[in-house]
Amino acid sequence: MELSIDAGDVRLPGTLTLPAGPPRAGVVLLHGAGYGHRSYFLYEHLARVLPPLGIAVLRYDRRPVAAGDVPLAVQAADAAAAVARLRAEIGDRPVGLWGWSQGAWAALAAATSTVPEAAFLVLLSASGVTPARQMRYGTAEQLRRHGYGPEPLADLLALRTTVEEYLRGRLPRDRAQAEVDRYADQPWFPLAYVRRHLPEPGAWTDMDHDPAPTMAAVTCPVLLYYGETDEWVPVEESLAAWRDTGTAATVCRLAGCDHAATPLGGTTIAEISPTYSATLRDWLTDRLARSR
């Protein structure tokens, strides 16, 4: 079913996949940073595997922005609008949130603010550190996987640290831009995920967002997935953050998988880990049985 979501200043196109019979529950999907279209393979996979369990799946296009990311608070508000739209179709059924990568931060923010009635959270590659820290980790890992050694890694850290301080308003533009210019011709520069020409200070709204308070405030059941070779999220640090909050969560480690629950950067439904799919089915079936 094609529909639209009234998110206040914009209408977001969406697709609702319903079970064959009466819905037992519903789930709203929140996006990875660079994957805001509802046709992305991780989202389509859920629309295939969850409706046979009686779970309606609402996926929608993330709101457009001129540059950069949609702020997490805005994503959480859009998630609430999507939940309201889903409820208009399935009635007073339990509704949960699924979030991947950046969408996991947004799903946590929604579950503890705009959608406090969330029945469950399923989070794939949920970073337990700030976005700035996560990007330092992830870009360093990109260099390592491309064969770069200690000197380029040190240069990358210097570059990203300088740009972060500029974006926080602590360094003048000319000094930060000079650092970008210094490294722009290096072969590893495209892996640094730094703009060639710097935006205005404050452009990265959520760079210092600490997910720990939202992790600690979650009251619904949580299922966490981490690929054992995740190239973007510091897995052990993130799991330690979850433990430190004291929030109970079911953790599933995906052997041989990277950031998207697939091996070696796979981007097709056929490559999605069978463990991911089976655990998801079993966990949600158990949660719904308990909620009766």
UniProtKB/TrEMBL annotation:
The keyword Magnesium does not apply. It comes from the Bacteria. Keywords: Hydrolase. Signal peptide: none annotated. Gene3D superfamilies: alpha/beta hydrolase. It holds the Pfam family Abhydrolase_6. GO terms for molecular function: hydrolase activity. Residues 27-260 form the AB hydrolase-1 domain. InterPro entries: AB_hydrolase_1, AB_hydrolase_Est10, AB_hydrolase_fold. This is Alpha/beta hydrolase. It comes from Micromonospora cathayae. The lineage of its organism: Bacteria, Bacillati, Actinomycetota, Actinomycetes, Micromonosporales.
